[in-house]
């Protein structure tokens, strides 16, 4: 079993409902236990001209391999109507493997840790609700280090449903 953190995002077709459905699907993955889910946060898109995003983070314990998990996450995205029209385009659901135990993965389909964790407040603050502050990335940086360098700007923490 390894502890895995999943970043979730949506900016189409009732984003909060998309995230709730995704959480339910994550809870049904084989060889996997859903350990926790952060609050939901709204923020403007990093790219102009898209609707606002709702983001959250989920923690899993799983004995799936990274690629098995990636396949399962992409199946959930597809089930929820994800269309890959353009890179960085608006989407009904995005599920990213942020951290997978303390593994460093550099494969064509999968890079872990997710390469923009450190600069994205909408990833770091929900992650901090679930992970200990002394959580280490494989390069030794702690979550506390990353948070200290990433101000809580433009994020709106939504009340729990
Ligand atoms: N912006 C926000 N706020 N949240 C996201 O999940 C997100 N995802 C993206 C881009 C378009 C870069 N912007 C985002 O892929």
- How would a textbook summarize the main sheet? 6 strands, antiparallel
Structural class: alpha+beta
Determine the strand fraction and express it as a percent band: 25-35%
Give the total of beta strands. Answer: 8
Helix-strand topology string: EHEEEHEEEHHE
Shape: globular
Work out the radius of gyration.
15 Å
Mean pLDDT: 94
Number of helices: 4
Distinct small-molecule ligands in the complex: 7,8-dihydro-7,7-dimethyl-6-hydroxypterin
| Residues in helix, % | 25-40%
Span of the ends, CA to CA: 30 Å
Low-confidence stretches: none
Give the secondary structure arrangement, pairings included:
Blueprint: E1 2-10, H1 15-26, E2 32-37, E3 41-43, E4 53-62, H2 66-79, E5 94-100, E6 105-107, E7 110-112, H3 121-130, H4 143-148, E8 156-157
Antiparallel strand pairs: 1-4, 1-5, 2-4, 3-4, 3-8, 6-7
Bound molecules: 7,8-dihydro-7,7-dimethyl-6-hydroxypterin.
């Amino acid at each position: 079993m390894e502890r895995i953190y999943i970043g979730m995002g949506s900016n189409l077709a009732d984003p909060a409902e998309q995230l709730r459905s995704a959480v339910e699907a994550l809870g049904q993955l084989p060889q996997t236990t859903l350990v926790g889910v952060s609050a939901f946060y709204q923020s403007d898109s990093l790219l102009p001209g898209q609707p606002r995003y709702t983001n959250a983070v989920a923690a899993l314990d799983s004995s799936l391999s990274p690629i098995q998990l990636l396949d399962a996450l992409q199946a959930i995205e597809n089930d929820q109507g994800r269309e890959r029209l353009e890179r960085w385009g608006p989407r009904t659901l995005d599920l990213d493997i942020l951290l997978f135990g303390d593994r460093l993965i550099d494969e064509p389909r999968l890079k872990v840790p997710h390469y923009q964790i450190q600069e994205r407040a909408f990833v770091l603050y929900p992650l901090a609700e679930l992970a200990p502050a002394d959580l280490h990335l494989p390069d030794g940086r702690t979550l506390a280090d990353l948070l200290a360098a990433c101000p809580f700007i433009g994020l709106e923490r939504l009340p729990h449903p």
